[in-house]
């Protein structure tokens, strides 16, 4: 069954276009190295919850929105191999990412799929 990397990150609304451009580049890199899919979603209906919510999870401000992303792979071994190549790719190196969003507030993790309908 597939393996999934999931990400939630706050992005300043004023920098959404720059984020989209960077995401397109990142998506191309991931797909080139063998990811099965690469999806980026901009928050549309993400209310600020009283106890927990997507905005609370990443401490999003009124000037930010939440981006929810995932990448799928054949399996964990494929993910580990692809991720190593992605992290070494010069197209994703540099300080540009730090200028578009606060990576310290990004939430991410790898997940083993158990059901796909």
Automatic annotation (TrEMBL):
<protein>
    <recommendedName>
        <fullName>RNA signal recognition particle 4.5S RNA</fullName>
    </recommendedName>
</protein>
<dbReference type="InterPro" id="IPR009874">
    <property type="entry name" value="DUF1428"/>
</dbReference>
<dbReference type="InterPro" id="IPR011008">
    <property type="entry name" value="Dimeric_a/b-barrel"/>
</dbReference>
<dbReference type="Pfam" id="PF07237">
    <property type="entry name" value="DUF1428"/>
</dbReference>
């Amino acid at each position: 069954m597939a393996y999934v990397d999931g990400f939630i990150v706050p992005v300043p609304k004023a920098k959404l276009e720059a984020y989209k451009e960077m995401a397109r580049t990142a998506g191309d890199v991931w797909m080139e190295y063998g990811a099965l899919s690469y999806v980026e979603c901009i928050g549309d209906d993400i209310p600020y919850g009283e106890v927990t919510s997507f905005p609370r999870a990443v401490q999003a401000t009124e000037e930010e929105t939440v981006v929810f992303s995932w990448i799928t792979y054949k399996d964990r071994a494929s993910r580990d191999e692809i991720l190593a190549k992605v992290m070494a790719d010069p197209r994703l190196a540099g300080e540009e990412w730090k200028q578009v969003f606060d990576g310290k507030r990004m939430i991410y993790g790898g997940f083993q799929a158990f059901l796909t309908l």
